[in-house]
Amino acid sequence: MTKLPIDRQQIAAVEPIIRPHVRRTPILEVAGADFRLDSISLIFKLEFLQHAGSFKVRGAFTNLLTRTVPKAGVVAASGGNHGVAVAYAAGKLGVPAKIFLPSVASPEKIDCIRRSGADLVIAGDRYADALAASELWTRQSGAMPIHAYDQLETMLGQGTVGLELEQQSPRLDTLLVSVGGGGLIGGIAAWYGSKIKLIGVEPEAAPTLSNALIAGRPVDSPAGGIAADSLAPKRVGELMFPVAQKYVEKVILVRDDEIAQAQAALWSVLRIVTEPGGAAAIAAVLSHRYQPAPGERVGVLLCGANTTAVNFPMSIAKSATLAAT
């Protein structure tokens, strides 16, 4: 039997190391009827409330706190959220950071990185372009690379989401997780193993894990769609793939319009704002592409909220008026 790259014991060992630096994000249990889904319970893990707006900060702190960081600091390539997380964690720990983003990164993510004090470089149109540029910088500078998903420490940090969720909702039947490069679902799968039904959710425009499972190995896939700045790497990670093969029951593909509708539903019903990648998992349920059994307790990971989809111009104008009087 092939030994998997990570396991529960390793995740449990990392958790106390990063605990002082990350939030224990809450869960919210909602009757399925609130979303016109009868006879089920929805348990949302509100990981978008994490520092830096996504789960990615867990992996960032794990890398910085368990590896030897050189004087040159760290470098990361990202569609957006990983870069925000590394910039945030590096800033908190006083470590120099250089972040490479593609041009598809959202303005909010770009602004977050700039506000953190990290050095930001826009390189190419897609994550793969930013990754290639970051690898060149690594060779030139000697900085420590922090991979967005295909790195042991990154997966271990993301696996602490599963550890927390099991403590908060021990009777979960199923968990739906958005998939990009696979570090999150890989870490969570390593924590849960076969204890629950684990479902991956991807945009139709970026079927990286779907294609990998069909091919039996990570393969290049399309990288587009509404969630291109978070769920559209060229391929899933080599480290996560055997974990997904063993523990991910299936992967569901959702359309861009279904993701957008899920964002709207989260706002309408719960007043929750997520970015497209953060809403992909619930899109699988609301579109009925995943159909829970009666009485099923369905966990849904809402994993990111770095978006400019909502702004408050009237509130800003009112605040400015009040401040002037």
Report what the structure shows:
The protein is of the alpha/beta class and 325 residues long. The protein folds into two domains: 8-54 and 152-302, Rossmann fold (3-Layer(aba) Sandwich); 56-145, Rossmann fold, CATH 3.40.50.1100. Helix content is 43%, strand content 16%. The chain has helices at residues 8-18, 56-66, 81-93, 107-116, 127-141, 152-168, 183-192, 208-215, 240-247, 256-270, 276-286, 313-324; strands spanning 27-31, 41-46, 74-77, 97-101, 119-122, 144-145, 174-178, 197-203, 248-254, 297-302. The strands form two sheets. It has a six-stranded mixed sheet with strand order 1-2-10-7-8-9, with helices on both faces. Helix 6 (152-168) crosses helix 7 (183-192). The radius of gyration is 19 Å and the shape is globular. The N and C termini lie far apart (72 Å).
Describe the global form. Answer: globular
**Roughly what percent helix?**
40-55%
Number of domains: 2
For the record, the CATH architecture of the largest domain stands as 3-Layer(aba) Sandwich
Side by side, the strands of the main sheet go 1-2-10-7-8-9
Alpha-beta classification: alpha/beta
Bin the strand percentage: 15-25%
Ranges where pLDDT stays below 50 over 5 or more residues in a row are: 314-325
Helix and strand string, N-terminal first?
Answer: HEEHEHEHEHEHEHEHHEHHEH
Largest sheet: 6 strands, mixed
CATH class annotation of the largest domain: Alpha Beta
The CATH topology of the largest domain turns out to be Rossmann fold
How many β-strand stretches?
Answer: 10
On the 0 to 100 scale, the average pLDDT is: 91
> How large, in whole angstroms, is the Cα Rg?
19 Å
Question: How far is it from the N-terminal to the C-terminal residue, by CA?
Answer: 72 Å
How many helices?
A: 12
